[in-house]
What does this fold into?
Amino acid sequence: MAAKHLQVWPRQRTGQMSVATQAVLDQLLRLSFLAFCLFVFFLVAFPAYGELKIGGSPNLAPSRLLRLAMLGLMMLILMIKPFRHSLTRQEDRGARILFWLVAAFFLWILPLVLFNAASLGYTLTKLKNEIIPVWVTFWLTAALVRSRSQLNWLINILALSTLVLLCVMGLEVVLRRNVFDGLLQVENVSTQLAFLEDLRDGFYRAKGTFQHPLVLAHFLVSFGLMFLAKGLFHPQPRAIGGLKWSLLGGICLGCVYFTNTRSGLAIGVVFGVVLLSLRYLVWLRGFASQVMATVLRLQLMWLPVLAAGGMYVLADLMAGRSEAERSSSSSRLQTIVNAFGNIGESPLIGFGVGLGDTKGGVSYAGGRMYTVDNLFLLQTLDNGIPAALLLLACFLYCAWRVTPRWKDWCSSEDVGLRVGILFVMLTTSAMYFIYALPDLFELCFVLIGATLCLPGRRRPAGA
It folds into this structure.
């Protein structure tokens, strides 16, 4: 009897969904995207190193719980969708290249972490803190951020979380201590380090919701420039729509001062001048009088003179103005010397996670602890030269792909967003030559995954 009610699914409809299935899938995707937005908010607004303890409940880490919730929803989606319906399918060729470039990076380092680490403890730590969370988050971003409107939602969430971060940072600077001290559980080394008072020559170095002042400086510089670009290239830069982004970006860049990080200040100033110069050139293209535009362009001839003076100040800043700063600069230089002296011993697969530090790092605490203050060097020492090149290629190819062609640069929201993402990728690449902490790794790959929904180097929409 039951066989009479069976209906054969036509071959030409293989991979397609019924209306009811499509409706359920759409609702689950909307719910997953909402959880994703909350997850991104907590990545910035709440310390990743801490856990809340409420009464007798288990320790709670919001970002970890939201990641699990998203994975649960995605498991439901994977079970009800047709087999041939891909959640991460990219129509744009450049987007496919970027997706597989990121996949190649993780596919290269995964077996090395599993089979070439110094110990099982290093393997588990690397898998738990970097590889699995970052790859899962990147895949979720590629699956959930599928349109320009969703990308705008993501940028707005980042702006809101940045406002929370700035408030936390302001309280920290006034109180001269971590505002989460006493609220979070001190159960790991990262939390203990974050709660330590960080002074350099008597100047308190703010951390915000991050573990180290350099991480905060990295975030403020990179995303401050993104917000500033959105404001400068807004169709109405002097209206509320453009001013709010410019103001937020300017505040972020100004607050880098309170981290007391020389590299953050230097990179912020250099890339800030580049961004303003580009906007100035785009502004001149709108002049009806080409003579006047040419005269104004000639004013940029002062830039080499200013750059020469800036290089002198920058060299003095990098060398260090105090004993603590000179010691920091000397350690970074020694790291480079040590690393390049040892890379040749194992250039293809590195020395293994946990051993790269000892081969190229500078020793602290009487030789009991080593550190390499350069993420690309650390990747080279741990996982070989291909790992470092693939990681750098992820950032640079993403920057190249989203950059509009020069003739398409104009005052539009699309150009502002693309230029902002370009500067995030460039400053991130520059900052990772200065330090190697993985705190912003996940957020960077969220942004890379979100750019997959944008078309490649074409004329921007509405331009």
